[in-house]
Structure formats: C-alpha cells, structure tokens
Specification:
10% of the residues lie in helices and 43% in strands. The chain has 169 residues and is mostly beta strands. The protein has a 5-stranded mixed sheet with strand order 2-1-3-6-5. Strands 9-15-14-11-12 form a 5-stranded mixed sheet, with no helix packed on it. Strands 8-10-13 form a 3-stranded antiparallel sheet, with no helix packed on it. 13% of the residues are buried.
C-alpha cells in the first residue's frame, strides 16, 4: 500500500502507482513515486497488553511522514476498570458445571468441589437436596462430602454430573 502526501500531510491510501518509463518498462523506484508525493506505507502496530490496554490506529492525517515512507501511528491507552471487567467477563464461559473430583471416599471428610459459572444465584441439586450459592466473580462454589458409598447426582439448570462415593475399608 502507498500513501498520497499533500502539503506534508498524509491524505489518502492508494495502491502502488502503475507508471511506465518512456521505453515502456515499469517504474519500480520508490524515489520517483516519493518525488510525486506517493510514499510506501509502513504499518507496524505497537505491542500492547490486550488484557489491560486498548490500541487504536490514528487517523491517516496523523501518520508520520518519513524521508522514504509514511508510518501508520497508533494510540495505546490503559483500559478503564469497567472496560477491564467487561473484557474479563467476555472470557468466561457461563453455565459450566465442573468438579475437581469424580470419586471421593465415603468418609464424611473428603470434599469434592463443584463450580458453576453464572451471573445469578445458583441452585445446586445434589441427590434431591437444593443448595443456593451466590457466585463470587461469576463462580458459584459448593463443597460436598459423602457418608455412604454410591452415586452423588448433581445438577444445575440442564447440566448434570455424577460423583462416585467409594466404600472406605
């Protein structure tokens, strides 16, 4: 890509000129284009922290005119706390029911931790007993134990899982 520069200010993006010498050969020397105010574009976006900052390409009129090129310029700004929170929220996959253990001893002491991602209160149904949990940072957490061997059926909304409580010897 090339940039037309008028009165020292980049003004339009265009393709490389399709010019020919008198002998019919194609003009390939950028110096000839530059003499007519048409510069090659250099576009190297700056590195930034996508979790904490935002990057915006400046308007063409604010790009830097160098001796042999025009360089696209960018503005890198810190995100506001609200923008960071919105970005973090966009990374969360909501309505996920997870457990850290699929099997626990039926000793009444060993916990399995259940989590469900949600913006609202979560109602865990564990073997027909309902447990209401308010999420913290969009994660509702419930720890369960087992006193007897067998299946522990867990459901939240339309998600289900089963943890097996094994006999303690």
């Amino acid at each position: 890509m090339y940039i037309k520069v008028t009165n020292g200010i980049p003004s339009e993006i265009r393709s490389k000129p399709n010019w020919y010498h008198e002998d019919g050969s194609k003009v390939t020397d950028d110096a000839i284009f530059i003499a007519d105010g048409i510069y090659p574009l250099v576009d190297n976006p700056p590195v930034y922290d996508t979790h904490m900052q935002k990057r915006t390409k400046n308007p063409i009129s604010e790009w830097r005119v160098n001796i042999d090129s025009v360089e696209a310029t960018y503005l890198v700004e810190d995100m506001t706390p609200e923008e960071i929170a919105d970005y973090a929220k966009s990374l969360i996959q909501f309505d996920m029911l997870l457990t850290d253990k699929w099997s626990i001893p039926a000793d009444g002491l060993t916990f399995a931790t259940l989590t469900f991602t949600s913006e609202n209160d979560v109602y865990f149904l564990v073997n027909n007993a309902v447990h209401k949990v308010t999420p913290i940072d969009y994660v509702a957490t419930l720890e369960i134990t087992a006193d007897a061997p067998g299946a522990i059926n867990v459901s939240v909304q339309d998600k289900q899982l089963t943890i097996i409580a094994t006999k303690v010897v």
